[in-house]
Design a protein that fits this description.
Blueprint (H helix, E strand, L loop, with lengths): L3 H4 E6 L1 H18 L7 E7 L3 H8 L6 E9 L12 E4 L9 E9 L3 H11 L5 E9 L12 E5 L5 E2 L15 E4 L1 H7 L1
Parallel strand pairs: 2-3, 2-5, 5-6, 6-7
Antiparallel strand pairs: 1-9, 3-4, 8-9
Bound molecules: 1-O-pyrophosphono-5-O-phosphono-alpha-D-ribofuranose (PRP).
Length: 186
C-alpha cells in the first residue's frame, strides 16, 4: 500500500482551481436549467463522481435532486475493459424529466456511450452530460458532452473521487500517478 507521496508524480489541478471551475459549472447549469417545472435530475455515476457531484450540487441555485447509479468498466486497472457493467441501476423513472449525468472522467467514452443510449430509451425530456475531466485523446466512442471541467492529457490521474485500485479518492486535488506504480501491477 503506497502513500500519496510515494504514488504521485505531480499535482495536476489543485484544490482552488477545482473549486473555482466547479463554481463556474454550477452557475452555467443553474442558468441553463432555470425555470423548469420539475427539479433537475442529477445522476451521479458511482463511485468516482461522488466528490464532484457533492461539490457541484452545492453550487446549483435551481431545484434539483440527486440519484445514484453504480457502473464499472475498469476492474481496478488503468485501462478500460471495454465492458460496462451496471452494478446498481436507478430507483426512479426519468421519463419526461430533465436529466444531467454527472461523471468524474470521460476516457474512452465507452461508459457514457452505453449510458446515454440506455437512458435515452427511458424517454427523458432532456439528457445531457457533465464531466469534471475529459481525456479527448483516449476517445473510442464519440459522446456529446455539454459541460466539461478540464481537458487533460493521457496521463493516469487520481484524487477528488478518482482512484487507483480504490486508493486516493479522498485527495482534495487531481494528481498524476507515477507510471511505475501501475506498470508494476498491470
Ligand atoms: C471511470 C469513470 C467513468 C469511466 C470512464 O469509472 O468514473 O465512469 O471510468 O471511462 P471510459 O470513458 O473509458 O468508459 P471506473 O470504472 O473507474 O469506476 P469508479 O468510478 O467506480 O472508480
Amino acid at each position: 500500500m503506497l502513500t500519496p507521496d510515494q504514488a504521485i508524480q505531480k499535482v495536476l489541478i489543485d484544490q482552488d482551481a477545482i473549486q473555482q471551475r466547479v463554481a463556474v459549472l454550477g452557475e452555467e447549469i443553474s442558468r441553463d436549467y432555470a425555470g423548469l417545472d420539475q427539479p433537475l435530475v442529477l445522476i451521479c455515476i458511482l463511485k468516482g463522481s461522488f466528490v464532484f457531484c457533492a461539490d457541484l450540487m452545492r453550487q446549483l441555485t435551481i431545484p434539483h435532486e440527486v440519484h445514484f447509479m453504480s457502473v464499472s468498466s475498469y476492474n481496478g486497472g488503468t485501462s478500460s475493459s471495454g465492458e460496462v457493467k451496471i452494478e446498481q441501476d436507478l430507483d426512479i423513472s426519468i421519463a419526461d424529466r430533465d436529466v444531467l449525468i454527472i461523471e468524474d472522467i470521460i476516457d474512452t467514452g465507452l461508459t457514457l456511450d452505453y449510458l446515454t443510449h440506455m437512458f435515452a430509451e427511458r424517454a427523458p425530456r432532456s439528457l445531457a452530460l457533465c464531466t469534471l475531466l475529459d481525456k479527448p485523446e483516449a476517445r473510442q466512442r464519440e459522446v456529446e458532452v455539454r459541460y466539461i471541467g478540464f481537458s487533460i492529457d493521457l496521463e493516469f490521474v487520481v484524487g477528488y473521487g478518482l482512484d487507483y485500485d480504490q486508493q486516493f479518492r479522498g485527495l482534495p486535488y487531481i494528481a498524476v500517478l507515477r507510471p511505475e506504480v501501475y506498470q508494476d501491477q498491470d
